[in-house]
Amino acid sequence: MLQKIDPASSKFWGSLASLANNQNGSIKDLFNEPNRVKKLSFQDGDFLFDFSKNSVSSEVLAELLGLAKDCHLKEAIQAQFSGVHINETEDRAVLHTALRDLNTEGKNAEDVRAELKKIEIFSSQLLDGTWKGYSGKSIRDIVNVGIGGSDLGPKMVASALHDKWTTITPHFISNVDASQLLEEVKHLDPETTLFIVASKTFTTQETMTNAETAKAWYLKNGGSKEHIAKHFVAVSTNADAVKDFGIAEENMFIFWDWVGGRYSLWSAIGLGIACSAGYQAFEELLKGGHDMDQHFLHTEMDQNIPVIAALIGIWYNNFLNYESLAILPYDHRLRFLSSYLQQADMESNGKFVGRDGKKIGYQSGPIIWGEPGTNGQHAFYQLIHQGTKIIPTEFIAFVHPGHSHQDHHEKLLANFFAQPEALLNGKSEEQVREEMGASVDEKLVPFKVFEGNRPSTSILIKELTPFNLGKLIAYYEHKIFVQGVIWNIFSFDQWGVELGKQLAKPILSELQGGESGSHDPSTTALIKRFQELRK
Ligand code: F6P
User: Fold this and answer.
1) Of 190, 450, 512, 519, which has the most beta carbons under 10 Å away?
2) Phi and psi angles of residue 235, each rounded to the nearest 5 degrees, phi first
3) What is the DSSP letter of 107?
4) What are the mean pLDDT values of the chain's consecutive 10-residue runs (535 residues total)?
5) Which residues are catalytic?
6) Which H helix or E strand runs over 274?
C-alpha cells in the first residue's frame, strides 16, 4: 500500500506557497546562480535533459525535494517495483516495469519471456513472409484494432520507428466512428491483411464493434470462416471473450492484470510494433525502458531525472497555478507523442479524490497537449509567447535525423534551439525600438514586445533509436508516477471514464428504437432533434 499523506500538511508545502507568493525575479535572473546550467542539466547516455530554463531556483528545488521526502516518495518507488498492490481501488500490482526487465527471475519474468518468444516467432513469420493468408499470399498490412492504451502506445511507437518498417505496413483503427475503419480498409486487400484485435478486457465497445466490422469486411471480400485464423489474432487478458469472438487460442497473445492499459505498449499490446519495426526493435525498446527504470530506482532524488521533472511540474501546477503542459517534439516521427501522453498523464492523474477517499484540496494532473514543431509554431505558439497564460513547455529533438536531408534538419533544429531561447529572453521595448531604427513606429512597439520569462525544458537526444524511445517513454511514466504519489492520488485506476460509458448504454437502446429514457432537458431536446432529423 502507498502511504496516505496529504502533501499540503507538509511544512514544505507552506514554504513553497510563500516562495511562490514572494517570487519576483525572472528566469533570466536565476542564471546568476553559479553553475545553474550544470546543476540543472542531466546527461544520461544519449540524452541531455536541460531543466535550467524553468522558473525554479535552487531554493525552490530544495523545498520540493523536502516535500517529496515528506510524501515518502522513495518508499513509494520501492513499493511499485516490488509488486505491492499500489493500485488499491482495483487491488492490483503495477508492474509494467517487469515487462522490460528481461534478465530477472521469478514467475512474472518467466511468463513475460514466454510471451516475448511467441511475439518473436509470430512477428518474424509475418515479416519474412512465411505466414500466409487464405490465398497463399504473404501478409503486407496489419491493422491494430484497439483504443486508448491498446492503440495510442503501439501507434505512437510504430509510427516513430517508421525507418525500420520493411515488408509490413501497420494501420490503426480506434474510433467507433466507422469512417475511420472504412478509410483505412479502402486501400487494403483482405488476402494480405491481418487484424490484431487488441483489448485488455475484450469488452470495449469501440474495439468489439470495429473487430466485428473488420471480420465482416474480410468475409465479404473473399475471406472465408475456415481461414479466419490466418487473418485475425488477439491480444488480451480475457481468454474466454477472445474465444467467443472466434479467434483461436493459439492466435491469442496474453498479458496480465498487473499491466495497466495505458502502460501496456511494453506487453503483447506492442505486437504491432514488433510486426512492423521487427522484434529486435521491440526488444531494444524494452531495454531502453529498463535503462530508465534503473536510473529511476537507483539514483538519489536530487539527481533523479523523472523526479526533478515531476517536482518542477508540481511547482508550476500547485504553486504558480500554471494549468497545462505543452509537449513539443521537433520530430515528425513523434507526432503522436502528445496524444499518447494525454492518456498516460491525464487518465493517471486527473483525479479529485485522495488515497484516503477524501476530496483533495489542491490541484492534481495538468492538461497535456502539443503538436510537433515546427507546425505548432505556425498555429498556437502565438499564445505561448504573448498570451496571458503561462504554458510550461517541453521541447524534444534528436541530433541525427532519420534521413539525409541535413538542410531540413538544421532548419528544424535551429527552431528547436530558438524557441526556448525566445521564451526565456523575450524582446524588450528598447530592443523593439532599436530594431525599428530611425523609422520607429511607436504605435506598433507594444505589439512587438515579448515579455519572455516563459519556462521550458529541452530534451536533446542523439538519435531516435528504439532504445532511446523506450527510455523517453519510461521517463514520462515515472514522472507521472512521482506526481501521483505526491498528490496522494491513485494513478493507476480510471473510474472517471465509466460514467459516460454507463449513460451511453440506455441512450443507445433509445436510438435503436427502445423506450425513451429520462434525461436532463438539454439532452432530451438534443436526442429529440436527432430523431426528427434522421427520419
Ligand atoms: O475507457 C478507458 C480504458 O479503459 C483505458 O484505460 C484503456 O486503455 C482503454 O479503455 C481500452 O481498454 P481495453 O484495452 O480493455 O479495450
Assistant:
1) 190
2) -125, 120
3) H
4) 95 98 94 96 98 97 98 98 96 97 91 97 98 97 98 98 98 98 97 98 96 97 93 95 90 96 98 98 98 98 98 98 98 98 98 98 98 97 98 98 97 98 98 94 97 98 98 98 98 97 96 94 96 94
5) 347, 378, 501
6) helix 271-277
**In whole angstroms, what is the distance from residue 394 CA to residue 454 CA?**
12
Closest Cα to atom 6 of ligand 1: 261
Pairing of strands 367-369, 324-329: parallel
CA-to-CA distance for 87 and 287, rounded, in angstroms? 25
Quick check: 259 and 477 in contact, CB under 8 A? no
149 C-alpha to ligand 1 centroid (Å)? 6
> Of 401, 373, 333, 295, which Cα lies nearest the Cα of 158?
333
| 473 CA from centroid of ligand 1 (Å) | 19
Query: Which contacts of 110-118 are long-range, i.e. CB under 8 A and separated by 24 or more positions?
Result: 111/256, 115/253, 115/254, 115/255, 115/267, 115/268, 116/283, 118/253, 118/268
Question: Does residue 199 line the site of ligand 1, with CB under 6 A?
Answer: yes
Query: pTM, whole model, 2 decimals?
Result: 0.97
DSSP letter at 345 equals: I
Q: Are 219 and 134 in contact (CB under 8 A)?
A: no
CA–CA separation, 211 vs 202, rounded Å?
A: 10
What is the rounded CA–CA span in Å between residue 480 and residue 484?
A: 6
Closest by Cα among 313, 278, 326 to 487: 313
How far, in Å, CA of 300 to CA of 219, rounded?
57
Helix, strand or coil, per DSSP, at residue 367: strand
Q: Tell me how far apart the alpha carbons of residues 412 and 403 are, in angstroms, rounded to a whole number.
A: 13
Q: Which of 327, 369, 366, 362 is nearest to 349 (CA)?
A: 366
The Cα–Cα gap between 391 and 203 comes to 38
* Residue of 150, 208, 339, 341 best suited for mutating to test ligand 1, as the one with most atoms within 8 Å of CB: 150
